[in-house]
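seq:
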Amino acid sequence: MLPRREPEATVVVCDDDASTLELLCDHLEADRFRALPAPTAADALRLCHFKQPDVLLLDLNLPDAPGLDVLREIRACEGLTGHYDPELPVIVLSGRGTDADRLRGFDCGADDYVVKPFAIQEVVVRIRAVLRRRDGRRAGPLRVGEIFVDTVRREASVGGRPVRLANKEFSLLRALAAEPTRVFTKSELLRDVWGFRSMGRTRTLDSHASRLRRKLDPESGRYVVNCWGVGYRLIDGPEEDVGPDR
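struct:
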């Protein structure tokens, strides 16, 4: 008898279409994931609360609530004291594929966005990709000069002053703080923070970087550096910005 292998990860699959739900769960089980079916928003939240999954696949059109409301509910939790893990990787599965729909999903906190119809193996690849990013994020607190980033509690401070950040602002800071001496290209940050496969014409990164810069240092905005034509990096003290994007 072959030895029994542990599941690679537990995935909550939320989709109101019975055939799609069954197909996804069957294929995920075949790829050594533990798949938990959730045909409604309430089912998805219940499973995310009690089963502590590693990933949530989330349809947007659900019979009892919009999928984006489920995503907002998860991201709004207060760390370890909440009903859900606010860091839970969430991959949106949707028939809505416009740029506006995708950006709305990412702004609500989605880690990735897959447009229907999709290839099952593409979904599996994307699950593994967000799991790798999650594992990299769970390395513990980060300190860059006066900047302190608590990756578990999702809290940030500068010189002991708490800084309130939106979800993607915090994710951007965490990415930059992971390697503060390196310049991250825009394509890297859009891929790792927003899940974009290509840059396109979006200004999402630049607008989030500008808000993060002002929140970290309202007076001079010195911590987030725009390396003009390349991307962004973090510094730990006063330094002149090398790009025009203050």
